[in-house]
Hints:
Keywords: Kinase, Transferase. It is built from 8 helices and 7 strands. It is of the alpha/beta class. It has one domain (12-190): P-loop containing nucleotide triphosphate hydrolases (Rossmann fold, 3-Layer(aba) Sandwich), CATH 3.40.50.300. Helix 1 packs across helix 8, helix 2 packs parallel to helix 8 (183-194) and helix 6 packs across helix 7 (147-171). The longest helix is centred in the last third of the chain and has 25 residues, at 147-171.
Amino acid sequence: MEQTIAPLALLRAVDTEAAADHIRRANRILVMGCSGGGKSTLSQKIAARFGLTYVSIDRDVLWLPGWVQRDKLEQRAIIAAKVQGERWIMDGTNPSTFDIRLPCTDFVIWVRMPRLLCIWGAISRWIKWMGRTRPEMAPGCIEKIDWEFLRFIWTFEGKFTPRVLAGLAQHGPDVPVLQLTSRRQMSELLDLLAKSA
């Protein structure tokens, strides 16, 4: 069964053109979504276009070398420090830290690609970076893929959507949200941003 899009009434949802206007003015942007959906690539392109500091939750917060997770309290302390920055774009979902991140966020981009596309994205990324660490990962985290990770991607939408919606409602009810559900929409957004003065 394919994903269902959350009712827009539950979000302060915007369309692509309105999103481009928000992004041009935003100082702090949160990009979230499933692994393999393209959120890191999108975040880095927006960061480069508008001079925002790129913060990768995977690289800067979650992982230590060798795929060892940092302690939860340390993760929260790092995020609390990062969100104090004046201008950033932060790539990572983790609804358990929405209470720290969303109150500081001007705009949210929710990358909700179909799960088969996310699976393909993760596999093609693994092939590209096999034996190496990609730039948005912590040093010493060699690119890998396994059944557990693929299962995480396959079940992501069902498991995380209720938590994301609850977190947005509780910690960021006034933060505008763009949902990107296709590569075409993502390209349209980037094209609009490329035309920005």
